[in-house]
Amino acid sequence: MSLFRHRKTLSLPEPFTADDIRTESSICTGETIIGFYDRSARKLMYAELVRSKDDISRFYAKYGLSCPVDEGS
Fold first, then answer.
1. How many angstroms separate the CA atoms of 23 and 12, rounded?
2. Tens of pLDDT along 5-63?
């Protein structure tokens, strides 16, 4: 039950911006993850599993950003 859960807006991790958010899907398993793409390491940082568009919206909302998926719908 989430009556007592308080959601805090997190600040974007340094040195990332909203433009660094990316989703990636596995060819083998089909799993999709979202996170901040680190160009130097060529991988997602702070990655989370995505099961639906709602998960993507929650990821953006967690950092106080508006989701581009919501804007197109």
1. 17
2. 667 889 999 999 999 999 999 999 999 999 999 999 999 999 999 999 999 999 999 99
In this structure, the number of other CB atoms found within 10 A of the CB of residue 47 comes to 16
CA distances from 67 to 6, 34, 62 (A): 21, 12, 11
Interatomic CA distance for residues 67 and 35, integer angstroms:
13
Q: What's this model's pTM, rounded to 2 decimal places?
A: 0.81
Asked whether 63 and 48 are in contact (CB, 8 A), the reply is no
Domain boundaries, the chain: 18-66
Distance CA 62, CA 10 (A): 6
Backbone angles phi, psi at 13, to 5 degrees: -65, 140
